[in-house]
């Protein structure tokens, strides 16, 4: 039985991956400080509450379990916040990741799957975006992920690490069981905000920017269901255990939808009018992010 450490496993994507690992028969240990995650979202396995800055706790964690692999989700992930408070992102996303990798080196855990992002591309010069596209992040959040991808490359060469970095586009949806879903406080993601308005829990939702160089003036994004992301993580784990080469791949649908299109779809699905207000652009938001997912479909089967 594989024993997998999932850092940040009480968060939105991490909790769905924990469920997928458990369903596949893995032994799972979730490590999360619960600053943004939820204890009740971890539906099985062992749970340790802690922070990756706590070196003593990390040491005891790795002494207690013999991990076969690590899946790393424990990162701050809001573009706007990263522009306003970059130190928070550099400290947690980079420095704490180095703490984790140091402990992996010490305990000879060779396999890591990293939660990366389309934000590493910055403003794309061609769409759909291939993995070979230049990496030019335009916000601190994307830059931290870019740095970690390079750390993984260097550590792999120097210390015999093996990794898969998964560049997410926009995660959406929830597990059909109804046991897991998206729950942030405050909620900033478009789809749950729209549904909260439709259900009466919010009075209105915001659209940030209506003057982008797109067909309707709003940002275009590539949405992928969270359970498809979870399945990709299991495939990435198999990829590593088969001793295949390190891999960096996009995870998306290769189809873009504008913010206004998502609003219309939410109204059609709920059969309710959803009130939205227009706000200025957020710093660090590219106009269009749509991926070419052909490499993932070839490599992660």
Show the helix and strand layout.
Layout: E1 3-7, H1 12-23, E2 27-32, E3 46-49, H2 55-64, E4 69-72, H3 79-84, H4 86-107, E5 111-117, H5 140-159, E6 162-168, E7 170-172, H6 190-198, E8 205-208, E9 220-225, H7 226-241, E10 247-251, E11 256-258, H8 259-270, E12 276-279, E13 288-289, H9 294-299
Parallel strand pairs: 1-2, 1-4, 2-3, 4-5, 5-6, 6-10, 7-9, 8-12, 9-13
Antiparallel strand pairs: 9-11
Based on the model shown, name its key terms:
alpha/beta; 2 domains; 7-stranded parallel beta sheet; UDP-galactose 4-epimerase, domain 1; globular; Rossmann fold; 4-stranded mixed beta sheet; 20% strand; 13 strands; 301 residues
Compute the separation of the termini in Å.
21 Å
Topology as a string of helices (H) and strands (E): EHEEHEHHEHEEHEEHEEHEEH
Largest sheet: 7 strands, parallel
Radius of gyration (Å): 19 Å
How many domains is the backbone divided into? 2
Q: pLDDT below 50 for ≥5 consecutive residues: which ranges?
A: none
**What fraction strand?**
15-25%
CATH architecture of the largest domain: 3-Layer(aba) Sandwich
CATH topology of the largest domain: Rossmann fold
Shape: globular
Q: Which CATH class of the largest domain? A: Alpha Beta
In total, the number of strands is: 13
Cross-sheet strand order for the largest sheet: 3-2-1-4-5-6-10
CATH superfamily of the largest domain: NAD(P)-binding Rossmann-like Domain
